[in-house]
């Protein structure tokens, strides 16, 4: 493809540097190693590289965050892009329901997240592992950090990605520093160790209540906001680090505006059968396209005939995060991850996330294999979620709910074998999958999109799908 560069101010470009990803901790592999080339994303309305008559045309199925991020990356590299979806982000009012990418709490978490479901399985050779999740999450974190520093054309004109950084505080029923391998919450201690090896380490602060001096430090930091116990059990340790939060309504509107301005075509259409065979070939012929990227989320159960796909229902209360009344306005995020209590019973998550529009998200509900969205604020599990959060955050029960839109629910797209960012090994044409992010679409999204683009380029070069998948997943 002939490269015709466009002129864009460096202040309007986010550059993710080339990076070699190496995994040598998997017992079924002698070592996985591959290269992410440098990638640039411009916030200008024109692509960094102008398309030519030689430009490849890519169909992207799915109008959520996973599909739109891939579209942005491809458009800035001079590809032609058509996005096909049966549902688009809606932000004009609160009469229509939001898509999953909008309902998400969109708090960046170092994997695995604290939602309470076994978010990352161990499917073995050939599939994404925790090491892939963490690499994708850190690439997304890098994007958010660099985007925060970019002079943004759309924000100057009244639009916004809706990004802000805050401090995320996580709390535990154990002293993480004292946990041993046979302790039920030992994985949380290992996760903290990995965080301290990552780029987050410069911001990590640790707290405990094991001595009077440490209790005094804890109280100074948290006493005005939270109770020192949850459901009658003492919280014994915590740690904090800087974390991005995305206002998903703003971000989805922003991404739609960016890819449209850069030349993406949109087509509203529901794909209701397997695209790996004749339907996929027909789509390519109809659009004069060269490859398909499947970012359909739960739709992949049909579109990719993938029986691994299943929904996990979630819900949040939307609270007025203002200085009115006795409730204290919150700037930071507070999370009590699901963990085992003193009786080795699983606990429920408490999720408190301030958006940048004076709205506080309070959750969370985690209900696997339920595909109906029939919860209400009066549903017993919603009431229990709210009371649990209210017993943790002081005066939360005195806060008011957001008028017109006090409650949101959605279906998280999980699979039994983790996020699937891979080349399809059945289709006779280049077909790349990017779905199954669960509740971590905004945490993983930039990294998985970058991986999908890497796979796409290799397939367009004629490299077999199985070879690519083995290179990345062993």
TrEMBL record:
> Matching Gene3D superfamilies, A to Z?
D-Amino Acid Oxidase, subunit A, domain 2 (3.30.9.10), NAD(P)-binding Rossmann-like Domain (3.40.50.720)
Tell me, which GO biological process terms does this entry list? D-amino acid catabolic process
Q: Does the keyword Plastid apply?
A: no
One GO cellular component assignment for this chain's record is: cytoplasm
Transmembrane ranges? 58-75
**PROSITE patterns recorded for this chain?**
DAO (PS00677)
The UniProt keywords, alphabetically, are:
FAD, Flavoprotein, Membrane, Oxidoreductase, Transmembrane, Transmembrane helix
Entry coiled-coil feature ranges? none
Cleavable signal peptide: none
A Gene Ontology molecular function term for this protein is: D-amino-acid oxidase activity
Keyword DNA-binding attributed: no
What cofactors does the UniProt entry give for this protein? FAD
Which ranges carry the FAD dependent oxidoreductase domain?
58-452
SUPFAM superfamilies the UniProt entry points to? FAD-linked reductases, C-terminal domain, Nucleotide-binding domain
| Matching InterPro entries | D-amino_acid_oxidase_CS, DAO, FAD-dep_OxRdtase
Which family does the record claim for this protein? Belongs to the DAMOX/DASOX family.
What is this protein called in UniProt?
FAD dependent oxidoreductase domain-containing protein
Please give the organism. Answer: Trichoderma asperellum (strain ATCC 204424 / CBS 433.97 / NBRC 101777)
Q: Name the lineage.
A: Eukaryota, Fungi, Dikarya, Ascomycota, Pezizomycotina
């Amino acid at each position: 493809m002939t490269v015709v560069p466009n002129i864009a101010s460096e202040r309007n470009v986010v550059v993710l540097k080339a990076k070699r990803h190496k995994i040598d901790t998997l017992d079924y592999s002698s070592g996985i190693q591959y290269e992410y080339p440098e990638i640039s994303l411009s916030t200008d309305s024109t692509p960094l590289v102008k398309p030519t008559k030689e430009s490849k045309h890519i169909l992207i199925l799915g109008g959520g965050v996973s599909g739109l991020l891939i579209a942005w990356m491809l458009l800035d590299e001079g590809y032609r892009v058509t996005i096909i979806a049966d549902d688009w982000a809606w932000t004009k009012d609160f009469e229509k329901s939001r898509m999953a990418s909008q309902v998400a709490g969109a708090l960046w978490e170092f994997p695995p997240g604290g939602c309470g479901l076994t978010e990352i399985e161990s499917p073995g050779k050939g599939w994404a592992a925790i090491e892939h999740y963490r690499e994708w999450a850190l690439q997304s974190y890098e994007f958010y950090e660099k985007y925060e520093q970019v002079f943004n054309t759309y924000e100057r004109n009244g639009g916004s990605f809706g990004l802000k950084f805050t401090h995320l505080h996580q709390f535990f029923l154990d002293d993480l520093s004292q946990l041993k391998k046979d302790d039920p919450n030992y994985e949380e201690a290992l996760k903290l160790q990995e965080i301290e090896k990552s780029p987050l380490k410069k911001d990590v602060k640790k707290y405990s209540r094991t001595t009077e001096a440490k209790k005094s430090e804890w109280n100074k930091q948290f006493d005005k906001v939270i109770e020192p116990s949850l459901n009658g059990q003492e919280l014994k340790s915590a740690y904090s680090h800087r974390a991005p939060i995305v206002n998903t309504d703003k971000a989805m509107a922003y991404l739609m505006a960016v890819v449209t301005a850069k030349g993406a075509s949109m087509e509203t259409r529901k794909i209701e059968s397997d695209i790996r065979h004749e339907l996929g070939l027909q789509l390519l012929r109809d659009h004069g396209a060269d490859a398909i990227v499947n970012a359909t989320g739960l739709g992949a159960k049909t579109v990719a005939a993938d029986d691994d796909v299943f929904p996990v229902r979630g819900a949040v209360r939307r609270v007025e995060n203002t200085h009115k009344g006795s409730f204290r306005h919150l700037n930071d995020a507070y999370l009590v991850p699901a963990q085992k209590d003193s009786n080795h019973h699983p606990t429920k998550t408490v999720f408190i996330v301030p958006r940048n529009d004076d709205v506080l998200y309070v959750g969370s509900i985690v209900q696997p294999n339920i595909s109906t969205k029939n919860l209400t604020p009066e549903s017993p599990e919603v009431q229990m979620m709210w009371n649990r959060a209210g017993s943790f955050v002081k005066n939360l029960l005195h806060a008011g709910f957001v008028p017109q839109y006090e409650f949101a629910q959605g279906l998280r797209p999980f699979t039994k074998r983790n996020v699937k960012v891979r080349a399809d090994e059945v289709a006779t044409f280049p077909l790349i999958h990017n779905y199954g992010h669960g509740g971590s679409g905004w945490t993983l999204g930039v990294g998985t999109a970058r991986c999908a683009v890497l796979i796409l380029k290799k397939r367009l070069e004629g490299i077999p799908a199985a070879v690519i998948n083995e290179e990345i997943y062993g």
